[in-house]
């Protein structure tokens, strides 16, 4: 009787247990689709892709269009970094690729600021940037789980940069 009473009390107390404790264990997955990376940085013709991207970016005149282009390039590189890790290729190259993604993301932030200064409505694009930044953080954490301790210091620098860009993004809002 005593055991069943204790079991019953325990059973009824579970639903009232603070939900934030349960949430801390479940990873949050950001609903943001990254593009297919295409040719990866370890491919011999990858430099041609970079040259093409630089020429295309140079030819875009409007700041918001350039920001959109830079975000696509950032997302593509994040996707490439994730693919490199998933395929168990060069960890160092994956971290470098993730860092390059944040270079593009930084440019997207700058161009968004320029567009806003010109009076262009950037609210929808800024929302997209916020979600993209969260996705970049998620991928960096995923990469961190799959690498050894020797590479974590390099990745930590990139993770801090992603967070700093997220703070910078709040200023644009």
Description of the structure:
It is built from seven helices and no strands. It is mainly α. It has one domain.
Quick synopsis:
The chain is mainly α. Helices cover 76% and strands 0% of the residues.
List keywords for this structure.
7 helices; mainly alpha; single chain
What portion of residues belong to β-strands? under 5%
By DSSP, the count of extended strands is 0
Give start-end ranges of low-pLDDT stretches: 5-11, 13-24
> Biggest sheet: strands, sense, closure?
none
CA-based gyration radius: 21 Å
**Ends: how far apart?**
61 Å
Order of helices and strands: HHHHHHH
Query: What is the approximate shape?
Result: globular
How many structural domains in the coordinates?
A: 1
Average of the residue pLDDT scores:
86
Helical content class: over 70%
Number of helices: 7
* Alpha-beta classification: mainly alpha
How is the secondary structure organized here?
Blueprint: H1 2-13, H2 19-25, H3 46-59, H4 63-86, H5 91-117, H6 123-146, H7 149-172
